[in-house]
Design a protein that fits this description.
The complex is a heterodimer of chains A (313) and B (291).
Chain A (H helix, E strand, L loop, with lengths): L2 E8 L10 E8 L4 E5 L6 H9 L6 E6 L2 E2 L10 E4 L11 H11 L4 H14 L15 H14 L4 E5 L7 H17 L3 E6 L2 H7 L2 E6 L2 E6 L1 H6 L4 H7 L3 E3 L2 E3 L4 E5 L5 E11 L2 E8 L4 E7 H7 L6 E6 L1
Parallel strand pairs in A: 3-8, 3-9, 6-7, 7-8
Antiparallel strand pairs in A: 1-2, 1-4, 4-5, 9-10, 11-12, 13-17, 14-15, 14-17, 15-16
Helix pairs in contact in A: 2-3, 2-4, 3-4
Chain B lengths: L1 H7 L15 H32 L2 H8 L2 H34 L4 H14 L2 H12 L6 H6 L7 H11 L2 H14 L2 H8 L4 H30 L2 H7 L9 H10 L3 H33 L4
Helix pairs in contact in B: 2-14, 3-14, 4-5, 4-8, 4-9, 4-11, 4-13, 6-8, 6-12, 8-12, 9-11, 10-11, 11-14, 13-14
The chains are: A alpha+beta (313), B mainly alpha (291).
Chain lengths: 313, 291
């Protein structure tokens, strides 16, 4: 269901008068998987907690599905929230963790056990129902937290740095898994992350946050190709400067001289498997780098000291 | 009281020691003074106490154990503990919740106030309680007009509460701070009310910490002497707790009675010590990951 934020601000009463959120207005479409992306301290976790009702904004309104929920306690908002460290109930088994929200809602016992079984199946933890959280791996704990949040059939799913506490391999697996899960259970999902590649891979919409303000909102490709500000440009991927203009290093064409564009000399070649980075000192005194595929580089065969020309694609 | 010392100065976690790096002389130089000190301060006197109590002869022991005043003292100590321990458990848990949740700096002062009574000498606290609530004190006449006389058993409960005030708080607060409030917030998003969150999430996660604090409080309440002595009047059979009975017997040249009663109290304290060790293990098991 859609979520709309209207001029949301939150200061935490800091003495320097700085805002954690400084007038955030955004529309999160129904059924989307949106990533709130920003560096640490940009206010993204605070924004998530304001949507959840775990933090109260100083001003502004939060609407879920057209209902103004700003003054509604987190208990009644119908949201599923997954904490960065998953916040498992350590004294309860996996199945009791998942059943918690349903017991609070006083569902009949048969319905609860049916739903728990369904959730265990969904997150592939069927064999771990009787285990305690302390006996699970990080990835399993996260899936348990997701099952616990989804069991109450929330209107909105909120994930705070869902992959932050995992090692690289598990993280890559879970990204794909979460994306597939969202296809199976198409519930409006907002995740908070500081990792741009994670956001671009998983989310259908990005909200880039900086110092408590929204820099830009849109589809990942749109933001990547048409960043509204230098900050978004640099935050979403590598950049380099040619002739005073900020461009993506893979949007540059490298030719041997004579060629069009900015003239210069190769000062370094870094081969990273499929990708090769060529560093160029330009005649105007600046330097840039060009990103080539290994194939492009093999055809070009430049080495350090060669005279080259760099031009935008 | 060994149980109390154990809590105030908890033994540091054992670290894996690289035995090659540390020469046997170095280890010896550490062990001998530590063990020697323990023997002089604790093992010898307590061991001698048990020895002396045991060697006075079976008939003498049974004679001491059949004294009505001894069992009246035991019963009074139990009664005081039955009041003081629940009172301090509730106030300690409440204070721990308050301090762990509050972002306000003033709650730090609250924690310090909880620690104050055991930092003070018991005799100071006893005099303070007496001065405040007796007929001569500030609030005594006011209480008397409303038909309340705190002396002596209620005052003994108050003194016992004061002297064991911080134990539950100090056992529970670190657990709460370690756990953070995320579990509770997760329960909130799942729809649980504050009361339900307390009973189903907070209390079960701190239960071993609470029990640890209860055991410490109990040990302290039973062993308390100074503050209780001041406010009690120390009347045999009426306002004489077990520790006061031991003191009185000793003072009145009845060391045999004092010894038997002392062994009784010491044995109970040792049981509490063992219970504490078990609880500490349990607490660890719930907090430490074991995938």
């Amino acid at each position: 269901m859609s979520i709309s934020l209207d001029d949301v601000a939150k200061s935490y009463g800091r003495s320097d008068g700085k805002f954690a959120l400084n007038g955030v207005t955004a529309e999160i479409p129904s059924g989307s998987l949106t990533a709130i992306l920003g560096p640490s301290g940009s206010g993204k976790s605070t924004l998530l907690k304001v949507i959840a009702g775990l933090e109260q904004p100083d001003r502004g309104r939060v609407c879920i599905e057209g209902d103004d929920v700003t003054d509604l306690d987190a208990r009644f908002r119908g949201i599923g929230f997954c904490f960065q460290q998953y916040a498992p109930f350590r004294h309860l088994t996996v199945e009791k963790n998942i059943a918690y929200g349903l017991k609070v809602r006083r569902r009949p016992r048969a319905e609860i056990s049916k739903k728990v079984a369904e959730m265990l199946e969904l997150v592939q933890l069927g064999d771990f129902a009787k285990r305690y959280p302390a006996q699970l791996s990080g990835g399993q704990r996260q899936r348990m937290a997701l099952a616990r949040a989804l069991a109450i059939e929330p209107r909105v799913l909120l994930l705070d740095e869902p992959f932050g506490a995992l090692d690289a391999q598990v993280r890559a697996e879970l990204r794909t898994w979460v994306k597939n899960l969202h296809d199976q259970v198409p519930i409006t999902t907002i995740m908070v992350t500081h990792d741009q590649s994670e956001a671009m891979e998983v989310a259908s919409q990005l909200v880039v946050l900086r110092d408590g303000r929204i820099e830009q909102t849109g589809a990942p490709g749109e933001l990547y190709d048409h960043p509204a500000t230098p900050f978004v440009h640099e935050f979403l991927g590598p950049t380099t400067t040619v002739g005073g203009e900020v461009v993506r290093p893979h949007d540059l064409v490298l030719r041997r001289q004579p060629g069009p564009g900015h003239q210069g000399k190769v000062t370094g070649v870094v081969a990273l498997g499929f990708e090769v980075r060529v560093e160029v000192a330009l005649d105007d005194g600046s330097s840039c780098w060009v990103q080539l595929t290994a194939h492009e580089f093999a055809e070009l065969t430049v080495t350090v000291g060669d005279a080259v020309a760099v031009s935008p694609r | 009281m060994t149980a109390i010392d154990h809590a105030l100065f908890p033994a540091p976690e054992p670290r894996p020691v690289d035995r090659r790096a540390q020469g046997s002389w170095g280890r010896l130089a550490l062990r001998v003074p530590v063990i020697g000190f323990l023997v002089i301060v604790v093992a010898l006197p307590v061991g001698y106490l048990f020895f002396q109590a045991a060697t006075q002869g079976w008939s003498s022991i049974t004679n001491q154990l059949s004294q009505a005043q001894l069992w009246q003292a035991v019963w009074l100590s139990a009664k005081i503990a039955l009041w003081a321990v629940p009172l301090n458990t509730i106030s300690g848990v409440a204070a721990a919740l308050l301090i762990s949740k509050s972002r306000w700096a003033g709650t730090k002062v609250l924690g310090l106030l909880f620690d104050l009574p055991i930092a003070l000498s018991p005799i100071i606290l006893g005099i303070a309680l007496y001065a405040a609530y007796s007929d001569l004190g500030w609030f005594g006449p006011f209480l008397a007009r409303h038909g309340i006389n705190l002396f002596s058993v209620p005052a003994m409960v108050l003194a016992s509460c004061a002297m064991s005030l911080p134990y539950v708080l100090r056992s529970v607060l670190p657990v709460l701070e370690e756990l953070g409030d995320e579990q509770e917030q997760a329960a909130r998003t799942l729809g649980a009310s504050a009361i339900r969150r307390f009973w189903t999430i907070t209390l079960p996660t701190i239960r071993w910490g609470v029990l640890y604090g209860v055991a410490l409080t109990l040990a302290r309440v039973l062993g308390e002497y100074g503050a209780v002595l001041i406010v009690s009047g120390n009347q045999p059979g009426v306002s004489q707790s077990l520790s006061l009975y031991i003191g009185a017997s000793y003072d009145t040249n009845n060391p045999k009675a004092a010894l038997v009663a002392a062994v009784l109290l010491a044995a109970f304290s040792m049981v509490i010590l063992v219970v504490l060790a078990v609880l500490k293990r349990r607490e660890k098991r719930i907090l430490v990951d074991q995938p």
